[in-house]
Amino acid sequence: TEFVTVSELASMMDVQPTQVISACMSLGIFVSINQRLDAETIAIVADEFGFEVEFVSAEVQEAIPVQEDKDEDLLPRAPIVTVMGHVDHGKTSLLDRIRNADVIAGEAGGITQHIGAYSVTLENGKRITFLDTPGHEAFTAMRARGAQVTDIAIIIVAADDDVMPQTKEAIAHAQAAGVPMIFAINKVDKPTANPDKIREQLSQMNILVEEWGGKYQCQEISAKQGLYIDELLEKVLLEAELLDLKANPNKNAVGTVIESSLDKGRGYVTNMLVEAGTLKIGDIILAGRYAGRVRAMHNEHGKNLKEAGPAVPVSILGINGAPSAGDKFYIMDDEREARSIATKREQLYREQGLRTQKHITLDEIGRRL
Ligand code: GTP
Ligand code: MG
Question: What residue stretches are annotated with the Tr-type G domain (predicted)?
């Protein structure tokens, strides 16, 4: 089993990735920054830096009953997409453009709110859900917790620049997670744009785009001028079709926390993504170390919802704390049980925090690699 990557381990210990790489090297192990390490290597390297490693296994987890799905219960669901790329290559501009392509937004009439993700319904009636928390951080924070919500990654590269370190990192993240990539070559409106140079640089990384006979879809766009955005979204839908994404909407909801915060007037606000089942007002919810009841729920247009199905992002009120990005949430039948599990988790969390500061916890859950 392999656990965290070199860079994740480095950040847990608050040292530079290069220090971890050289520690590995002195053991005769040659690793790259995004490489995952096995338990033994982690233990030895951590020891070098004065850390003791504890591997938290599934045993500390409680049995949370999640209904199994039969084939006939599964219905198609919208894909969940993350945009990643180097600084200034156009992530925000692209996400804004896509948001404006939503045909439902206009008629909803509400004010657009940031809830960490949004869905767009295209003219053909198909829906795509985008995570709009800063791509990298969301992806790494969630991945570090074993959460995998992204179905497809759009890697955006500015055509007037190069494939940059963060581009490479984004590619490495997507590859490590086994998430298919679509390349968006941005800023093609610029006179200095050279999309072929980007394709060439990708090919040097063994990534051959379709135009060059490879398997990766690629689309030239201008996020600023709104050029070829529809074509890019078509490619996302095509990729989604190949993935044959399905979920059972007719059961208790399960999903992932995207972000949460404490609002002075409203209490804890939790933004999350339903992955399967249907979330309803009044549901008893367990999210990370917290629990509660869904008191109110709204979408990215500020519209109040009574329920939310698979791949729908929502913002809810009613959880008694702020769970972390990547925490799973479950709907449970028994409120006492939900609270007792939350309390147990909180205790465990405190004990671990108290026991020692020089102590890393590597959560094995969800890291079946
Ligand atoms: P960070 O969040 O800082 O990493 O940047 P980002 O990737 O979100 O890029 P952002 O969308 O903020 O764009 C960076 C700059 O590039 C802005 O000045 C944009 O106006 C500009 N830009 C983005 N897309 C295009 C494009 O298609 N053409 C041109 N000419 N400029 C663009
Ligand atoms: Mg941005």
Answer: 76-246
